[in-house]
Design a protein that fits this description.
Number of helices: 9
Strand order of the largest sheet: 1-2
Shape: globular
Structural class: mainly alpha
Number of strands: 2
Order of helices and strands: HEHHHHEHHHH
Strand content: under 5%
Mean pLDDT: 80
């Protein structure tokens, strides 16, 4: 079990301690217990980081992080104050080496982001705002789960910015994340529209119309 005081510790420091205290397998149960009252934002961030920094091809990540991400986003949208996950999800785990790879690859990006972070525009991280952002997270997680070539990076980046903003109460980062989320939706919509148009054209070519 990881034990440390969050206080005003930076996100990169928290993740580094999680990695340092990890056993051979990193269970979601341990992550949830360790992240405490900031679990919503930090869990979304942890789940988004692999795709956001280009490590989405690690085997098993979609299984370990995909479903709980949707659970947590839905609970945020419903106004829950603390995330809840069923045992069959909490008992899922990730190899320590893969978790260390995620933390190591993410650290430089997080450290650069943290130099600009500061509490501002508090209305963007209010209770009501968090419920709306939960819907955004759910939409982004759904897009990540779609088999769109290269389409999982923009929504993962959007979730990373928004979750960092939530954890540090920085409304500017949340707004940047929302802008990226709009771009992600546009890309996904264009790909889905092109695919649907292709299916329609193929259908009309084969069967007339």
């Amino acid at each position: 079990m990881y034990e440390f005081s969050q206080g005003t510790r930076k996100i990169s420091e928290i993740l580094a301690e999680l990695a340092a205290g990890a056993g051979e397998r990193v269970r979601l149960r341990d992550l949830v217990n360790a992240l405490g009252d900031r679990a919503f934002g930090l869990l979304i961030l942890v789940f988004a980081l692999p795709n956001a920094v280009g490590l989405g091809t690690i085997p098993g990540l979609s299984t370990v992080f995909g479903v709980p991400q949707m659970f947590i986003a839905a609970q945020m949208a419903l106004g829950w104050h603390k995330p809840w996950l069923p045992d069959w999800i909490l008992d899922k785990s990730l190899d320590r080496g893969d978790f260390l790879k995620i933390v190591d690859k993410s650290a430089p990006y997080l450290q650069r982001a943290e130099t600009l972070l500061r509490p501002r525009w508090a209305f963007m991280s209010s209770y009501l705002a968090e419920r709306v952002l939960g819907i955004v997270f759910l939409l982004m997680a759904t897009i990540v789960a779609m088999p769109i070539p290269g389409g999982n990076w923009p929504p993962a980046v959007a979730m990373a910015f928004i979750s960092i903003g939530l954890v540090e109460r920085d409304g500017l980062y949340i707004i940047v994340g929302l802008v990226v989320a709009v771009i992600a939706v546009c890309i996904a919509g264009a790909v889905i529209g092109a695919f649907a148009a292709g299916i329609y054209l193929a259908f009309t070519h084969l069967f007339g119309g």
